[in-house]
Amino acid sequence: MTTTAELKPAVSYLKYATDGKPYLAGSKCRKCGETFLGDRDVCAKCGARNAMEHKPLSDTGKLYNYTVVYRSFPGVQTPYVSAIVDLDGGGTVKGNLIEVEPDPKTLKFDMPVKVIFRDAGRKDKEGNSYLAYFFVPANKN
Amino acid sequence: MSNDVYVVGTDMIKFGRFPDRSVPDLGAESALLALDDCGLSIGDMQALYCGNLGEAGAMVGQRVLREIGQTGIPVVNTANACATGATAFREGWMAIKAGVYDIVLAVGVEQMGRGLLGGGGGGSGIPTEGLLGSGTMPSVFAQVGLEHTRKYGTSFEQFAKVSVKNHHHSTLNPKAMYQVETPLEEVMKAEMISYPNTKLMCSVNVDGSAAAVLCSEKKAKELGLMGRAVRVRASALNSDPYSPRNMAMPDFNAVTRLAAKSAYEMAGLGPDDVDLIELHDCFATAEIVHYENLGLCKDGEAGRLIDSGATALGGKIPVNVSGGLLSKGHPLGATGIANIYEVTTHLRGEAKNRQVEGAKIGLTHVVGMGSACAVHILEKA
Predict the structure, then answer these.
(1) Which of A11, A18, B179, B377 has the fewest CB atoms found within 10 Å of its own CB?
(2) In which domain, by residue range, is B335 found?
(3) Which pTM was predicted?
(4) Is there a domain that residue B327 lies in?
């Protein structure tokens, strides 16, 4: 699926690399080694100043936790899976897990997932489209 | 004479829906009830600590004084998510402990809308709720429960039992918003909001207020109020310490453990010494994890604890005999002081049908997302 650089990222930790490919951006502390989602100047874990480096996060991970949402605001299609994913190499992100039965009976903790990037399917008041990320089950053979 | 601080007067209004009333009006009602409870008046108070979220920044405390007596006393308005009321209480406690005042009033009040809390809009121009996961309160706390399931296999049924218990307790509490029995099957078959929380496993959005008069030992003796006074053995407040997944999935465990540890240490007591507990059951899933966070059982044993019946009225460690947030209701700013009222009432032997027999020590716990956790330990004087 091609995404175009015309889609504005829906959140600040979603960025485009120099080759135009979207990715989830993170930061790593040189002092304590902790990985964070998004940009930051100071380490929230150890308080180190001037120690944060930019770190692109992996596009694969495992399902740490989830819930299946049945009731939401108008315009949100339910049920859907709200997932907490531990990305390989560090960083934990919340997002929708799609292309899967939204049923607690079939979802498994630690199932491998992949991050994909797509049009959010929502526009703002001016009619602009946005880039979002989603998780899909990763089929490991 | 110690520098102990006492609750000498406290009360709450029956929680409900009062769309035609104002926030200060609701707060003023509890303030007067608490003052009446100890036979004092607003003129006797040296400071007012007022907790409210919805109109934080709109001088709710001052507007309460406009209703009941503008004595010019210092007013501190507090906001700390669901720990708002307990923060107001703690600030009053701290001022007396520090010897700055002898007698203060703490009020917690909230007027809530209906419907889902949380899940506000995210980044640049489009709301992210339902697009990039869910941030609504039922979903956040559903995940709290499922993390426990992941670690220990806790079942949907075990979470649902919390609602059965707390709804049953509320039938004995005239101040609770709902006073209805809900059998297990009814709880589990109710509309699913965010698995595993059904509608009957979510606390109710209600309006309400509660207030407490805090007093130094010296002043309480002077005023002849020691007879129904309750000693504050501990007051603790913590913010969420760093934990790796906290940003994606709020961690209520670490902050509660910090505050609980601090409170037990300050009081020189342990969980076994506590006769009743009012903890933060904003959702049925939350009560389960807080059993472990407050040390009522070992990690992994919370499912067994709810199964055993030990946390029901009559059991070894009664939890939320008021009906809890689930059934009594959770007006955000009021809850932290409503819990103080409940525990104090039992320690005074005045809880009637729902009295925990022989209660001498009680614990209150609230935790708000963002996060703030307050734990208080109270003792019959």
Answers:
(1) A18
(2) 5-114+204-380
(3) 0.96
(4) yes
The candidate with the shortest Cα–Cα distance to B329, out of B215, B170, B219, is B170
CATH number (domain holding residue B104): 3.40.47.10
CA distance B161 to A122: 39
Contact criterion met (CB below 8 Å) for B213 and B45: yes
B123 touches chain A (CB under 8 A): yes
Nearest CA in chain A to B144: A65
**pLDDT tens per residue, range B46-61:** 999 999 999 999 999 9
pLDDT above 70 for B120? no
pLDDT value for B125:
86
- Asked if the structure places residue B192 within a domain, the reply is no
CA distance B55 to chain A (A): 23
Rounded CA-CA distance B168/B182 in Å is: 7
Is the pLDDT assigned to residue B230 strictly greater than 50? yes
pLDDT at B124: 52
Annotation marks residue B82 as catalytic: yes
Q: Does A84 sit within 8 Å of B245, measured CB to CB?
A: yes
Residue owning tokens 């009559």: B314
| B352-358 contacts at long range (C-beta below 8 A, 24 or more positions apart) | B352/B172, B353/B172, B354/B169, B354/B172, B354/B173, B354/B313, B354/B321, B354/B322, B356/B275, B356/B276, B356/B313, B356/B318, B356/B321, B358/B275
Angle between helix B84-97 and helix B332-347 axes, rounded to 10 deg: 60
| Model confidence at B341: pLDDT above 90 | yes
Does B175 reside within a domain?
no
User: Which amino acid, one-letter code, is at B224?
Assistant: G
Active site residue B330: yes
Mean pLDDT (chain A) is: 94
Three-state secondary-structure class, residue B167? helix
Instruction: Pick the catalytic residue from B280, B290, B330, B346.
Output: B330
Mean pLDDT, residues B377-381: 97
Chain A residues within an 8 Å CB radius of B126: 10, 120, 122-124, 130
Tell me what the mean pLDDT of segment B74-100 comes to. Answer: 98
What is the distance, to the nearest Å, from the Cα of residue B221 to the centroid of all Cα atoms in its chain? 28
Q: How far is CA A99 from CA A5, A60, A106, A111, in A?
A: 25, 16, 12, 13
Residue B159 is assigned to a structural domain of this protein: no
Check: CB of residue B325 under 8 Å from CB of residue B331: no
Residue B123: the pLDDT is 46
- Model confidence over A8-67: pLDDT tens digits? 999 999 999 999 999 999 999 999 999 999 999 999 999 999 999 999 999 999 999 999
Domain count, chain B: 1
Give the C-alpha separation, B132 to B101, whole Å: 49
Average pLDDT, whole number, for chain B?
A: 96
Q: Which residue in A55, A83, A53, A54 sits closest to A68, CA to CA?
A: A83
CA atoms within 13 A on the CB side of B2: 8
